[in-house]
Amino acid sequence: MGKDKNNQSSVWNTIVNNDEVVNIHLLFNISHMSTLILKKRKELLATFELEPWSYDMLVILYQAGESGLSPKELLKRTGVASGTMTHRINLLLKSEFIISTPAPDDGRSIIATISDKGKSVVKKAIKAHADESAKILGDLNKEELAAFQQITQKLIHQLQ
């Protein structure tokens, strides 16, 4: 097994240098970690009959409070296409997680507000999400968490 690993390493090194191999493996690990976290997140949110996108929208609307948000404001905060947003709003309305009222300044638009049902579900989902996050990150001490947060924010900023 050790011989195989050395052989693989030497094959890599015929193409890229050792530092580049480390970078490739690090990004593979980040990608793999992201996939695993997303899978756990989907499984967790499914217990509340939510998808990651619906959870994110409900959290945004919960934070917005009673004033709600227009589809245009939701677009800015989520980064999805207009047609996608319309579809998502319709699904959340159908599930009774949100309510819509006519926009006071534009009769053609609406204001989406989280419903009591949506508030109840999202509060439970937020707590479960926090508990699951603590489990995932539980092996890291406070210094490692702070460093991880700083590093990930730096990488996200660089990628945007």
UniProtKB/TrEMBL annotation:
<protein>
    <submittedName>
        <fullName>Regulatory protein MarR</fullName>
    </submittedName>
</protein>
<dbReference type="InterPro" id="IPR036390">
    <property type="entry name" value="WH_DNA-bd_sf"/>
</dbReference>
<keyword id="KW-0805">Transcription regulation</keyword>
<dbReference type="InterPro" id="IPR036388">
    <property type="entry name" value="WH-like_DNA-bd_sf"/>
</dbReference>
<dbReference type="InterPro" id="IPR000835">
    <property type="entry name" value="HTH_MarR-typ"/>
</dbReference>
<dbReference type="GO" id="GO:0003700">
    <property type="term" value="F:DNA-binding transcription factor activity"/>
</dbReference>
<dbReference type="GO" id="GO:0003677">
    <property type="term" value="F:DNA binding"/>
</dbReference>
<keyword id="KW-0238">DNA-binding</keyword>
<feature type="domain" description="HTH marR-type">
    <location>
        <begin position="23"/>
        <end position="157"/>
    </location>
</feature>
<keyword id="KW-0804">Transcription</keyword>
<dbReference type="Pfam" id="PF01047">
    <property type="entry name" value="MarR"/>
</dbReference>
